[in-house]
């Protein structure tokens, strides 16, 4: 089995970085265009505690898009929502841990727990918002029935998402894993691989980019959307919405421990769980995003 490392080329000014045990993570993308200021309408009374700005770090699709829909709801309550888009899964947690941002919206609970354990951060779930079915998508082949000896399947390389991808492949008869490995599964836990599949393990954001080079790709729902895939029309197989995975992998608003009960965080979560936003999600994402 091989692991292919892709180098992400960042445009703009390149600063020298010293190695400190790990490679530097990608920084934020440009802030969301509709990022937002509170409404000046007379009905928008300022919150009693005076803390009216909510800074949220998010990945682009669907998280920043969904956040854009709540700005008016929050403005009507006197809050200003500021959203900055990030292109990776590391920096959004770091900037919340540091206090630079109030919250982030991009991850599910297993990834959050894993990140805290590995990085020593203190982030907690402030509220579950939506679920993104994980799916197997076509690369050079469009049917699992066409799988052949030595085919390559691309999967995410981070701990929880790789396990999720492998479990989905196991559910569809492609491989078999050691009993009980669950969310800790890696390619090293594969006990049966009848087609001698070679797994290309990539950073989650890069998996879709090799779809023209591998037989199949296994994608997070947001990256499937960014790649132009429709869960309903294009996925070969995906996790069902009534599965245990829906509860396990709900995408959450994450905050630093102790901030989960702040009025502005509660207002953010309530706005995201409103009927208006649930309707937006259902109408927009073709089953790739399901309100929780």
Could you characterize the architecture of this molecule?
The protein has 292 residues and is of the alpha/beta class. The chain has helices spanning 60-75, 91-97, 109-119, 159-171, 221-226, 231-234, 244-248, 263-272, 275-284, and strands at 53-59, 80-86, 103-108, 123-131, 135-138, 152-156, 176-177, 190-192, 198-202, 216-219, 237-238, 251-256, 290-291. The strands form three sheets. The chain has a six-stranded mixed sheet, with helices on both faces. Strands 9-6-10-5-11 form a five-stranded mixed sheet. It is elongated. The chain starts with 52 loop residues before the first strand and ends with a strand.
Shape assignment: elongated
- Rg calc: 20 Å
Count of individual domains: 2
Instruction: Report the CATH C-level class of the largest domain.
Output: Alpha Beta
Order of helices and strands: EHEHEHEEEHEEEEHHEHEHHE
Q: Topology, please?
A:
Blueprint: E1 53-59, H1 60-75, E2 80-86, H2 91-97, E3 103-108, H3 109-119, E4 123-131, E5 135-138, E6 152-156, H4 159-171, E7 176-177, E8 190-192, E9 198-202, E10 216-219, H5 221-226, H6 231-234, E11 237-238, H7 244-248, E12 251-256, H8 263-272, H9 275-284, E13 290-291
Parallel strand pairs: 1-2, 1-3, 6-9, 6-10
Antiparallel strand pairs: 3-12, 4-12, 4-13, 5-10, 5-11, 7-8
Helix pairs in contact: 1-8
């Amino acid at each position: 089995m091989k692991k292919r490392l892709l180098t992400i080329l960042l445009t703009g000014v390149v600063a020298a970085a010293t190695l400190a045990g790990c490679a530097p993570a990608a920084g934020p993308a440009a802030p969301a265009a509709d990022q937002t200021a509170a409404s000046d309408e007379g009905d928008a009374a300022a919150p009693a505690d005076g803390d009216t700005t909510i800074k949220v770090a998010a990945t682009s699709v669907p998280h920043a898009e969904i956040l854009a829909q709540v700005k008016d709801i929050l403005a009507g309550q006197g809050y200003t929502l500021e959203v900055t888009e990030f292109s990776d899964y590391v920096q959004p947690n770091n900037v919340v841990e540091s206090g630079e941002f109030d919250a982030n919206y991009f991850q599910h609970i297993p990834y959050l727990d894993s990140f805290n354990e590995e990085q020593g951060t203190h982030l907690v779930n402030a509220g579950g918002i939506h679920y993104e079915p994980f799916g197997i998508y076509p690369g050079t082949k469009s049917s699992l029935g066409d799988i052949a000896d030595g085919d390559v399947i691309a999967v995410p390389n981070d701990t929880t998402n790789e396990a999720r991808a492998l479990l989905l492949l196991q559910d569809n008869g492609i491989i078999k894993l050691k009993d009980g490995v669950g969310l800790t599964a890696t390619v090293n836990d594969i006990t049966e691989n009848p087609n001698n599949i070679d797994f290309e393990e990539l950073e989650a954001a890069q998996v879709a980019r090799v779809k023209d080079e591998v037989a199949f790709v296994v994608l997070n729902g947001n990256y499937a959307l960014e790649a132009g895939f429709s869960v309903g029309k294009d996925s070969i197989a995906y996790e069902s919405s009534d599965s245990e995975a829906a509860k396990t992998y709900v995408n959450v608003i994450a905050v630093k421990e102790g901030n989960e009960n702040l009025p502005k965080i509660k207002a953010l979560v309530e706005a995201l769980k409103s009927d208006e936003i649930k309707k937006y999600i259902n109408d927009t994402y073709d089953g790739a995003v399901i309100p929780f």
